[in-house]
């Protein structure tokens, strides 16, 4: 059996995702689609709208055969670290292909870019360093450096978020020497950052989350598969909320106000005196968006600061993350869900796996599992105390979801 | 002008307190009554029901002339440390007398006890140590040790909370060599720990807090001075709550779940592996009282564990508290309120004070002020975000209350 791997957040699962799953299988002619899905906190430094369990159900209902967890140590990271983690997990799962969505839709464009970047690495790094000295944010420094290299016109631009991720997936495969073939699917219609829901059946995840935040669930019904939409509604009914940063703001503020700057400084991604800025802002801000707006400077992107907020909330230190990321291979693979086809694949590929496939986190040891448990408990904090207790106690014994 | 000092929490101010203020002035014939009042968190390890500002107003409306702050580093401590801090602040204020309520009402009983304890110190300490080894809580170990010394029948018992405090006030005066005369007022009717509101005009603070927790404010109207009762009602109206531990439970649980045991262990009063017990209980408990009930063992008193909870909530470490308590004299005296008479006393006694009298905390430096600011910010956490912001920003510039 052949497998194609995809890297996903499904926050929430929409028609664009469904399109990619179908295309990934079609292009590669793979038997199974394996998604590595971010657990509780996402790359933009946000809590997932619904739990990983509900998002796993969405995925299984809409064409994915196996869902494994992208743990906290990888899910809340800049593109490079995020991609390295995701690809190493997919490689351990034995995928033959990966597939990712892109504005280009042409894999040669990415191969071209990869070669170009390899040839110009020294100059590129120098430009990035110089640009950072000018006070640019890291993404701006890199995209400017890219322009400064003056690539020929048919080289893909590194300024688009999906190009950056795609580039890093392919670079990770190359750097780690995996024999995985990369493929890409042309993204349809919606642009990643679009704020408005389109009239068509495809909308950006950003516009969908915007509608959710405004409490306008019915507005997104036509851009999501029925099963996914029902699961979203059911989560809200069961847990009385869809998770947004604002649900965690009291905890974040409390955390900052109760923590001396000498300890804030030890939090992962807290650099260059940001601890003082965070401390001052936390005394004045009255909501999470207010906090972010007051914290924002041109030196840091919104996403970078949201990731910092996430690490403060989860109390993740530089030392802990250094230890976690120093592992040569993932400490374990956590299975979140599968269908019958997925189960057959797992049985067949069993002998090739060198990393333990965990079905209950109680069996996972080590720093990855330690940080994952903490992040999960904190993710559950806004739920009512009774539900929280139940969910916390179940997280150790919960079996993967099996779809038939 | 002569002054009498009293040590108070006024949580809230009731008729028993009013009786003591009147008696303290009468017995000592002092011109002014100076209260050193616990700030935000109290000796039993609880948040004060209303802010120190409202409790200062209660005090000034009911016969107290000057209110100074007993900072966090002293207010949330066992009797000995609590008494040492309070007495040293009153001594710096130049009081000639102190007065405290007791079941005995006879100061000779306390002098007797003090002499007896001095003479039997070595044997007493040995008994305490042996009793602790048997797994007794510290208060039980000391009261048993006291009985083991077999004092003659007219020696006051060290098993009553008010006797213990009175004993430690007098011991602090003696140990630190202050020339302050101790006096005591016979407590009327209510016993400290009574749970039921009595029909008379005096009720215990415990029974009053119980009624408040049950939302039955009208039940305690007859046991409080009118001004104090009005202030209590007004606080609830203005801030939409009266502070109880339950209002902080989500923060406490979050704090424990986000903190590794290696750091929990560094929290003040977290001894003998309590960090593991705290960690486990926090995953299961659904309310503060549930948390406490699950945490309780015969080794520790309820009060001792509530103080631990307070230190966890405020993130106060052993190292910080060690530094704070190593100060020879208080770092500052913070004035919370006064009337005209109090003002006259402050002017007259100015030249005798060696410790700065602070009217705004922005002027206070050092570890005491640092920990006080943190505790205050956390005390304010359950208020709505807008009110919280306002109160946090005002705490640095707020002037003492002046009553006319």
From TrEMBL, chains A, B:
It is an enzyme of class 6 (ligase). It is found in: Cytoplasm. Its EC number is 6.3.4.-. Keywords: ATP-binding, Cytoplasm, Ligase, Nucleotide-binding, RNA-binding, tRNA processing, tRNA-binding. ATP binds at residues 7-20, 101, 162, 187. It catalyses: cytidine(34) in elongator tRNA(Met) + acetate + ATP = N(4)-acetylcytidine(34) in elongator tRNA(Met) + AMP + diphosphate. It comes from the Bacteria. Catalyzes the formation of N(4)-acetylcytidine (ac(4)C) at the wobble position of elongator tRNA(Met), using acetate and ATP as substrates. First activates an acetate ion to form acetyladenylate (Ac-AMP) and then transfers the acetyl group to tRNA to form ac(4)C34. This is tRNA(Met) cytidine acetate ligase.
């Amino acid at each position: 059996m052949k497998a194609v791997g995809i890297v996903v957040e499904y926050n929430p699962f929409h028609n664009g995702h469904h399109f990619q799953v179908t295309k990934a299988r079609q292009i590669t002619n793979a038997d199974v689609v394996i998604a590595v899905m971010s657990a509780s906190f996402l790359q933009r430094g946000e809590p997932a709208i619904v739990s990983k369990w509900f998002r796993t159900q969405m995925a299984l209902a809409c064409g994915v055969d196996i869902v494994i967890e992208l743990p906290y140590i990888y899910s809340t990271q800049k593109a490079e670290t995020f991609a390295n983690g995701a690809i190493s997990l997919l490689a351990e799962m034995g995928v033959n292909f990966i597939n990712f969505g892109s504005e280009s839709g042409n894999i040669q464009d990415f191969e071209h870019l990869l070669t170009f970047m390899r040839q110009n690495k020294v100059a590129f790094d120098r430009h990035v360093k110089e640009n950072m000295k000018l006070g640019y944010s890291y993404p701006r420094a890199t995209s400017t450096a890219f322009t400064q290299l003056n690539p020929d016109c048919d080289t893909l631009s590194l300024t688009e978020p999906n190009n950056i991720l795609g580039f890093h997936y392919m670079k990770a495969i190359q750097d780690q020497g995996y024999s995985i073939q990369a493929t890409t699917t042309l993204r349809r219609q919606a642009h990643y950052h679009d704020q408005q829901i389109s009239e068509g059946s495809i909308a950006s995840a950003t516009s969908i989350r915007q509608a959710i935040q405004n409490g306008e669930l019915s507005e997104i019904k036509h851009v999501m598969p029925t099963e996914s939409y029902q699961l979203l509604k059911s989560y809200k009914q069961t847990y009385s909320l869809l998770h947004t940063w604002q649900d965690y703001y009291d905890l974040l503020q409390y955390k900052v106000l109760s923590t001396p700057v000498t300890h804030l400084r030890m939090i992962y991604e807290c650099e260059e005196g940001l601890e003082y800025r965070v401390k001052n802002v936390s005394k004045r801000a009255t909501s999470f968006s207010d906090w972010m707006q007051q914290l924002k400077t041109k030196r840091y992107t919104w996403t970078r600061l949201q990731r910092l907020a996430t690490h403060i909330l989860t109390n993740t230190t530089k030392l802990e993350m250094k230890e976690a990321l120093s592992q040569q291979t993932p400490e374990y693979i956590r299975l979140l869900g599968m269908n019958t086809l997925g189960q057959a694949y797992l049985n067949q590929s069993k002998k090739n796996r060198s990393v333990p496939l965990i079905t209950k986190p109680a069996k996972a040891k080590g720093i990855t599992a330690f940080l994952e448990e903490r992040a999960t408990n904190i993710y559950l904090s806004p739920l009512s105390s009774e539900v929280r207790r139940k969910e916390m106690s179940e997280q150790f014994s919960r079996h993967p979801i099996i779809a038939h």
